[in-house]
């Protein structure tokens, strides 16, 4: 592999995980660049995302779970549910045909763009000041996080939906950071094993994402910490919509017909 290609993979990992640490998410932006550059076949994208972003996400989880308070029972239940959902979802996605993956990821990217727009226009709930859940609220949030863990395997990043969920349940939105990052940090290595077992990933790209991603996390968490994000959200919406259109167009293209033997 050319040195320039390896550098591109690392830079992609650095940029995606830098903004991921600030709460934007890494899956949609990484998918958009992969489609724009045609780096790997579409069927390898879900596994590559999970494997490549796993180590940077673990770094995020360590940072945020040690600096932001959240009720241990709530954190443990929601993380365990996300891991179970990720394991189930990865087993399904790793065996899906390419057309199903293209259609699923295209729709997932449209959902991601919609969530970004809700954030831009302030439609997402403001949340409360609770740091944990009990009773039926905890059961509901746990079940939803299971679903989010499963859907993450198709490219719907868990961050924005988890933030919405936590806020809707009356929790302090800042509590979403350790929940969503610990959820991803625990489920991504588990789901990565399923994708690696099926060979449904691009190993050089995954390695580049991991190599560049960890410095991006550390820079965002300890040096930059925050940025004026409005302009960046609009840029992400445009990029994600572009990737969604490309993915859905690929899904709708007719399959090549086999040539009949003479």
List keywords for this structure.
about 75% helix, disordered C terminus, mainly alpha
Number of domains as seen in the coordinates: 1
Helix content: over 70%
Instruction: Identify the overall geometry.
Output: globular
Strand composition percent: under 5%
Count every beta strand, where a strand is a DSSP E run of 2 or more residues. 0
Supply the helix-strand structural class. Answer: mainly alpha
Query: Mean of residue pLDDT?
Result: 85
**Which residue ranges are poorly predicted, with pLDDT under 50 across at least 5 consecutive positions?**
258-262
Distance between the termini: 40 Å
Rg (CA only): 18 Å
Order of helices and strands: HHHHHHHHHHH
* Major β-sheet annotation: none
Quaternary class? single chain
Question: Number of helical runs?
Answer: 11
């Amino acid at each position: 592999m050319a040195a320039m290609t390896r550098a591109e993979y690392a830079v992609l990992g650095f940029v995606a995980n830098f903004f991921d640490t600030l709460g934007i998410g890494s899956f949609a932006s990484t998918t958009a660049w992969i489609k724009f550059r045609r780096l790997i076949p579409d069927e390898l994208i879900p596994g590559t995302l999970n494997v490549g972003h796993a180590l940077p996400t673990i770094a995020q989880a360590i940072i945020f779970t040690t600096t932001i308070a959240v009720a241990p029972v709530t954190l443990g239940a929601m993380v365990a549910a996300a891991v179970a959902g990720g394991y189930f979802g990865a087993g399904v996605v790793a065996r899906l045909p390419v057309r199903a993956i293209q259609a699923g990821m295209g729709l997932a990217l449209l959902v991601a763009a919609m969530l970004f727009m809700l954030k831009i226009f302030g439609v997402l709930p403001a949340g409360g000041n609770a740091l944990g859940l009990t009773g039926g609220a905890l059961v509901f949030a746990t079940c939803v996080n299971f679903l989010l863990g499963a859907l993450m395997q198709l490219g719907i990043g868990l961050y924005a939906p988890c933030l919405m969920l936590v806020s809707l349940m009356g929790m302090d939105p800042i509590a979403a950071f350790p929940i969503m990052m610990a959820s991803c940090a625990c489920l991504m290595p588990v789901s990565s094993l399923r994708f690696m077992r099926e060979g449904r990933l691009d190993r050089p790209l995954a390695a580049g994402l991991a190599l560049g991603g960890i410095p991006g996390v550390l820079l965002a968490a300890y040096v930059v910490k925050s940025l004026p994000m409005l302009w960046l959200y609009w840029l992400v919406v445009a990029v994600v919509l572009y990737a969604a259109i490309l993915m859905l167009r690929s899904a709708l293209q007719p399959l090549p017909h086999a040539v009949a033997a003479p």
